[in-house]
Design brief:
With about 300 residues, the chain is α/β, with parallel strands linked by helices. Helix content is about 35%, strand content about 15%. The longest helix is centred in the middle third of the chain and has 22 residues. The chain is globular and about 50 Å long.
């Protein structure tokens, strides 16, 4: 069992930051041997090319915008069945490599690596785990990490969509993660809505969670992610012709908060760090700081002193 490196196309391990591989056989092992060969088979060429491009784009984004980029960017982008079923995407804590499985879409197997938000999400796990290793147990901290990775995915998607800058007002951003990889044509997660959580009143969401019995941390992460969405879009204030928050501010704030992620154990602590970093590192205005507070309050995350 071995991988074949995708180096029959412009973006590849020899000429870019990233190295991408196809899995020739149906099984996956953390001890897999990486060897250099051309594409496994022609049918995967189109989506393998797209997945390779996405991995390279995300690698370049991290390398350009973060103080502690990853030491390597490796991904297996074409994984078949594992134990009889198709696997989604994941990040290997030990291998420090992204893994993108397949899903049948419109009668054709498609790599999760073809969606840039999925690629960005998984590499964000690598970015975070080199700061804070964490574990696989379900905790509020685990849900917080998933939320940060979804937020990062949105930041990458809209930066890439605007050809390497943030021209669009965040009100016009795309807030989906894993578009078209849910059953039917829906997205895996949408940061602009809490409907998937079956709550109608966003203000009471956070207080309804029993973290001792909660299990689906991907779903629960949406509460924190939605606070970020509200932060970027709910307040329509324009200052000198610019929205209260723009993409550059969001990216800088995200980068600052990630530096402190090892100190965060709860969504409410994240609220505190978002405000502290915005004030100290980005010199946020009182109006911006109030907007940050309101966004978290809107989903039930109060100041810690209120608990």
């Amino acid at each position: 069992m071995f991988c074949t490196e995708c180096h029959g196309a412009p973006y590849n391990g020899n000429f870019g930051l990233s190295r991408t591989y196809n899995l020739r056989y149906e099984n996956y092992s953390s001890k897999i041997t990486l060897t250099d060969h051309r594409l496994v088979d022609d049918p995967c060429h189109d989506f393998c090319q797209q997945a390779r491009d996405n991995v390279e784009t995300v690698a370049q984004f991290i390398d350009d915008n973060f103080n502690k980029p990853l030491d390597r960017y490796e991904a297996i982008i074409n994984v078949g069945r594992i134990n009889g079923s198709y696997e989604p995407a994941g990040w290997g804590r030990k291998t420090r490599r992204a893994l993108f499985g397949q899903r049948e879409i419109n009668g054709r197997n498609l790599s999760y690596g073809t969606d840039i938000t999925v690629v960005a999400h998984e590499f964000c796990h690598g970015l975070i785990q080199q700061i804070e290793e964490g574990d696989n147990e379900f905790t509020e901290k685990k849900a917080l990490e998933e939320s940060f990775c979804d937020i990062f995915a949105v930041l990458v998607r809209n930066y890439h969509r605007d050809d390497g800058c943030y021209r669009n007002n965040p009100h016009n951003w795309l807030w989906d993660v894993g578009e078209n990889f849910q059953e039917g044509t829906g997205s895996l997660r949408r940061l602009d809505t809490l409907l998937s959580l079956r709550f109608t009143d966003a203000g009471s969401v956070y207080g309804q969670i029993d973290w001792n019995t909660a299990k689906n941390y991907h779903e629960l992460s949406l509460i924190h992610s939605h606070a970020f969405y509200r932060l970027m879009t709910i307040h329509n204030t324009v200052i000198n012709g610019q929205p209260l928050f723009n993409g550059e501010f969001a990216l800088k704030l995200f980068r600052e908060v990630v530096e402190d992620i090892s100190t965060l154990d709860s969504f409410s602590e994240s609220r505190r760090v978002f405000k502290e970093r915005a004030k100290k590192s980005l010199k946020a205005s009182p109006r911006q700081l109030d907007a940050i507070s309101q966004a978290f309050t809107d989903v039930g995350m109060w100041e810690l002193s209120k608990y």
